[in-house]
Structures are given as structure tokens and as C-alpha cells.
Amino acid sequence: MATNKYTAEQIQVLEGLEPVRKRPGMYIGSTDTRGLHHLVYEIVDNAIDEAMAGHCTEISITLEADGAVSVEDNGRGIPVDVHPTTKRPALEVVLTTLHAGGKFGGDDSGYKVSGGLHGVGSSVVNALSIHMRAEVYRDGNVYVQEYKRGKPTMDMKKEGKTQKHGTFIRFMPDEEIFDDVIFSMDMILTRLRQQAYLTRGVTISIMDARKQRPELDLVHPRLYRFHFEGGISAYVAHLNESKERIGTPIWFEKDTSDGFVEVALQYTQSFQEHVVSFANNIHTAEGGHHLTGFKAAITRTINAYARSYGILKEKEENLTADDVREGLTAVIAVRLREPQFEGQTKGKLGNAEMKTAVETVVNEKLSQYLEEHPSEGKDIVAKCLLAARARMAARAARDSVIRKGALEGMTLPGKLADCSNKDPAQCELYIVEGDSAGGSAKQGRNREFQAILPLRGKILNVEQARLDKMLANNEIKALIIALGVGIGEVKEIAKLRYHRIVIMTDADVDGAHIRTLLLTLFFRYYPELIDGGYLYIAQPPLYKIHRGKDIRYAFSDTEKESTLKEWGIKAEELEVTDVGDEQAPEEGAADEEGPKKGAKPKVARVNIQRYKGLGEMNPEQLWDTTMDPENRIMLKVTMDDAEKADAVFTTLMGSEVAPRRKFIQTHAKGVKNLDI
Ligand code: TSJ
Fold it and tell me: Are residues 163 and 261 in the same domain?
């Protein structure tokens, strides 16, 4: 019925922003640093949409001196005409009502992106900002409106003339909503670089104009410009920078009735597979049907090619999907009208039709490429055959290892201090760097459900090692046996002995290195454990701060400073000592307990100690701060984290020396913070 439809539409359009401020997590996932960054992505995604619709070529983002963020594009400008149902300018409706986005878009924009928040809209950003200003450059005029916490503080007005066209949005995140309002250049760069690859030809620039930059951001120049004429083909080239490549990236695209398919791929001599997929510019970390279609197609196409040229003999077995994925780097980007995102983190594309769409396109275009490039074709098949032979050798090695009982049925390693509970769902395994920290952890733990495995030294260079060699390494063997899941083709995730695996390393370069190495190992050999949410990183405190009987632990410099602020002490007035040293507080650094009648103000000494390593904490401290489920903070490792570790690892450990040297030089200043 027409009346009902009208009413329903009106209700939807008029929905206010109160619920967003009441339950921000429902709209942006969380109010931690991740949620904070979503604000930027959400605004930028609108400009990306405009670029993908073919109306915008430049997008600039500025982290302003005062902590605000501004985003400007040279698109058509958000419409400003009065919206019929609300009698308000479209600009105001877009920025002050929920789900108003897209209602003004006509149909030419094709597939909407709206990546970060899966399309909840720019009004959510407005609601969560203490202040927002919008400028629209359109028809020779500048239109302006400002808002506070999502509410207009003025009617939209014309403010002068301009030759420009486009949209400018400036917002200041609300400190009442977010735990922390400091942006990370690293996070913003990663995301925007990816968006620039996916939107070929657009220029995205990021300016860091803040007075105070977070320590980790100091390794970055203040201005970045991303512009990739090559699109995802340049992305593949970038992923393979430090690897030994076979030919140049292969690229193709095709518009099908089910959606648009674009693929870039390149083989390398590495043993690892690196395939990244996207749907409507959203990274599908859990894969989905488009990825399944891609994998099916490369297996089929390469086998067919190898057979037709007699490289694979009649009596020889087909190459397996694993064989053709070894050393493969690829980016798959699809665009479709109604993407369904499924899975635990909504990172899996659920549209079944995309399997056939991608499979058909890749079958056709890849076989055409191989026909036209026989020399590259031969090299690719040779690489896949090498993988197949290695697989058979590894199988033989594994069989013999199993016969000798190296893994299966083998007793738990002696250095593992196991827990008494045998229910995996209750149990935790702490992988601890070094024997002394391992000792503290063993004494400090709750032995009922916490097991400790100390690892010594640098484990192994997994980039260059094969499965059979890895099994021979004692540290790795101990870890694998402790996990209980086997490895390679005998992997059985259901046999996992601990449902929380915690990497606990020092907050220094060596610790970061071991952590990167372990993350890489899990990323490459046990991605299921990361996907399943079993892998964590412990967060030991960086500082112990005490004043009289009041003891606090700080896990970051920000936290340390806020404790001192709470106590009315300026950070510059204190000197931080390493654990063990005595600290004499300077005059004025001490705290006053508050004036008591007739008594002199009581002064307590404030003392800050910095922990250099886990080994410096005694068992009780380690339990209290880092291992006690009631108090501890642990980071759950995501595929994204692990993938980044893998990239760092490949650069640091890979067989090619030149890029490693470059990496170490360009990051030398930041190495003490080397982080995933
Ligand atoms: F929404 C927003 F405020 F977050 C925002 C929107 C932020 C930024 C930086 C840019 C944009 C934006 C929106 N850039 N370009 C557009 N384009 C439109 O909204 C637009 C313009 C014209 C037409 C038309 O049919 O004429 C349609 C649309 C959707």
C-alpha cells in the first residue's frame, strides 16, 4: 500500500542519531582505536565511491594539528537541494540521519563501496564527533554547515563563490565516546594504500600535520601520496617486492552478469602463497566463493596447460591445488550489487554465484595468457612441479618421521610445564621467550589450567625452511607436540590441546623478532588457529608506578602519563629508572595527600620503574599483571596482524638481501618499536 510505504520510508529517513551515541559499539564495532579509525575510513569511503563512479580523481586526508581529521575530494559535491520529505537540504539529511546515504545517488554509482562500517553512513561519524564542518563546492558556490555531536548548529548557508567542485568534511572525534582519540599513521596508511590500489588512477594523499605524533608514527614522513595507475597489478608487484619473481604480474578483468571480476597474479620462487581477496573494496579476510572459484580455476588451467604441452606426462598425477598455490601471489577483486558478508568477522563473501563468475573468467583469461606467453608458462609449470616433488619428498620424510615416532605418539617435551586440567577448552599455553622468563612464568602461573613452554633463542628461518627441515628443529618440534595438532598433511586441528595459545615475549627488539617469527609460523602453518581465535599476544606492563602503598602498572606511555596526571605529577618532573635502581623523586614530584587540620601535608614518594624484560618481574608480579585472567590484557591475533608479521618477516628473513637492507635502513629509527 502506497501510504504504508510512504510512512515507512519517512520513519527510516527521519531516524535520529541518539541511538548512535547511546550504543556506539553497535554502529562502529568498538570504541577502541579500531573504532576510532573506522570514522576516517567511513568518510574516505564516500569519496572513494565518488571516484569509482568516475567523478573524482583526488582525495586528501589531513590529520590536523588540533586532533581533527579533514577529508576533501574533487567530486560532484554532496547534493544541497531540499529533500522533498524532510524539507531539509540533502547535505543535512545525509549527515544527520541514519541510513540516509545512497538515497540521493541515482543509479549511476553502480556498486557502492562503503567499506569500513559496511555502509552505516557518515551521519554516524557526525554523531560521534564533538564537532563537524561540511563544505560543498557545487555550481560555483560554497555551501557550509556545522554540527555538534551530530546536531546542526546552523542552517546550511552559502558562503562565497568557488570554481572548485567537491566535498570537504572536517570532524573532531568525541573524547567522551572513544578510549583514545590519537590516530595512528600506520593504520591509516595501510588502509588507504589498499584503497588506492583498488581504485586505479585515484590519488590519495595523507598529511600528518599534528604537533604531537605518536612515537610509532615518527618513522613516517608527514606527507604520503598514493597513486597507482597499475591498480591491483601494482599491488601484486608491491607484495612481491622482496621475492624472486617469475615474469611480470598477469592482470585481467571482465564484467559478467553476476558482477565485475578483476584479478592480478604473479608467481615467485618463494614457498609461500599470498592471495588477498576483496568484494566491493572490502577485504574478505576469511575468503569466500570468489576465492574458491579462483583456486579451482588456477588448478584446472595450469593442469590443462601442462598436459597439453606434455610437461605433465600421461601417467603422472595432476598437480594439486596446494602445488599450484605455492609461490603464488594474487589479488582478486570483485564488485557485485548485493554482497553478503558472512563468518565470524563478516570477512567471508557468501554470494555463491561469484564462484562460477571468477572461475569462468580466470579459466578463460589465464589459459589465454599461458598460450600467448609460452616462456612464462613453462616457468610457472616448472615451479608448480617443484612444489609437487617437494610435497612428495615431504610426505616421504613425514612418513619416515612418523614411523620413527618423531611426532605422533611422542611424549610431551621435557621443558613443557603442562597444566593439570586436560580439557582443552579450559587450558592455556604460554609460549615464553627465554629460560629466565620461563622460570618466572612457571612459578607464577595457575598450574591447574596454564601450561608454560619456554623457547630458547632464534627458532628457525621458516621462510627458507621446508616442512621436513622444520620438524627437525627442536624448538619447533616441542611447540608442535605441545599443541598436539600435528603439521602439514597430518594436521588435525580438533586435537588442539589448548584453546588459548599466548605468545609472551619481551618488549624489546629480540622479543619483537621472536613474536614476528612465531606469528609467521602460525600464519603459514596454522591459519586455522588464528581464524578460530585461539592465538593471543600477552601484554606485560612497561612500567610499575608506586606511591606509598598504591601500586599501578602501566601498559603504555599514555597510561603511565594518565596515572601521573591523576596524581597531579608532570611526567617531565620524573626520571624513569630501570627495575632494580633506586629512584629519588625530585622536589615537587611528590604527592600531597591533601591538607589535614593541624598536620603537615604528608608526602609520599613516587617511584617509576621500567621493565626491560619479563625476566625482571618476579612470579607474583607476572601473574598479577600479565597472566591472571581477572587482570590481564591480551591481544587476540587477527589474520591481518599475522599477515603483516609475515610481510615484515619475509623482508627481514627472505633470501634477497637488498630489500632487507633497505627495510632495516628505512626503519632503523623505529626498530625498537618493531611491532606487528
Ligand atoms: F558523506 C560524507 F560526508 F561523508 C562525504 C561524502 C565525505 C566526503 C569526503 C565526500 C563525500 C562525497 C559525496 N563526495 N562525493 C559525493 N557525492 C555525492 O554525494 C553525490 C553527488 C552527486 C550526485 C548526483 O546524482 O548528482 C549523487 C551523489 C551521491
Answer: no
The reply to whether ligand 1 has any atom less than 6 angstroms from the CB of 169 is yes
Q: Which of 50, 433, 463, 531 is catalytic?
A: 433
- Whether 423 is catalytic: no
> Residue 269 in contact with residue 383, Cβ under 8 Å?
yes
**Any ligand 1 atom below 6 A from CB of 105:** yes
- State yes or no: is 624 an active-site residue: no
Q: Using a 6 Å cutoff on CB, does residue 204 contact ligand 1? A: no
Q: If you measure from the C-alpha of residue 73 to the centroid of ligand 1, how many angstroms do you get, rounded to a whole number?
A: 9
Which of 227, 244, 266 is at the close of a domain? 227
Please return the burial class of 350, using the count of CB atoms within 10 Å of its CB with bins 0-12, 13-18 and 19+: middle
> Is residue 574 one of the residues assigned to a domain?
no
Please work out whether the CB of residue 79 comes within 6 Å of at least one atom of ligand 1. Answer: yes
CA–CA gap between residue 290 and residue 214 (Å, rounded)? 38
CB of 271 within 6 A of ligand 1: the answer is: no
Residue with cell 548548529: 153
Whose cell is 629480540? That residue is: 510
Domain boundary among 227, 244, 273: 227
pLDDT in tens, 430-479: 999 877 788 899 999 999 999 999 987 666 555 555 555 666 677 888 89
Distance 96 CA to ligand 1 centre (A): 14
Element spanning 49, H or E: helix 33-52
Whose C-alpha lies nearest to ligand 1, atom 19? 78
Q: How far is CA 578 from CA 75, 542, 604, 613, 614, in A?
A: 54, 10, 20, 10, 13
CATH number at residue 344: 3.30.230.10
Q: Which residues pair with residue 328 across a beta bridge?
A: 267
CB of 76 closer than 6 angstroms to any ligand 1 atom: yes
Q: Alpha helix (H) ranges present in 199-313?
A: 232-239, 289-308
DSSP for 189-224 reads: HHHHHHHHHHSTT-EEEEEE--SS--GGGGGS-SEE
The whole-angstrom separation of Cα 346 and Cα 282 is 10
Element containing residue 129 per DSSP (H, E):
strand 129-138
- Which contiguous run of DSSP H or E holds residue 21? helix 18-22
508 is catalytic: yes
- In sequence order, the 6+-apart residues with CB closer than 8 A to the CB of 27 are 20, 117, 120, 124
Which tens digits make up the pLDDT trace of 531-541? Answer: 899 999 998 88
Q: What is the pLDDT of residues 294-319, one digit of tens each?
A: 999 999 999 999 999 999 998 899 99
Choose one of 56, 108, 167, 206 to mutate for the ligand 1 pocket test, by most ligand atoms within 8 angstroms of C-beta: 167
Spacing, Cα 201 to ligand 1 middle (Å): 19
Contact 92, 236 (CB under 8 A): no
Q: Is 506 known to be catalytic? A: yes
Is residue 430 a contact partner of residue 504, using CB atoms and an 8 Å limit? yes
- Measured in whole angstroms, the distance separating CA 493 from the mean position of its chain's CA atoms is 24
Q: Which residues of the chain have pLDDT under 50?
A: 1-13, 100-110, 113-119, 403-405, 580-601, 655-676
Q: What angle do CA 427, 431, 435 make, to 5 degrees?
A: 125
Please give the distance, rounded to the nearest whole angstrom, from the Cα atom of residue 167 to the centre of ligand 1: 7
Q: Is 94 in the pocket of ligand 1 (CB under 6 A)?
A: yes
Q: Which atom of ligand 1 is nearest to the CA of 108?
A: 25
283 plus 174 within the same structural domain: no
- Which residue's CA lies nearest to atom 10 of ligand 1? 47
Give me the number of domains the chain comprises.
3
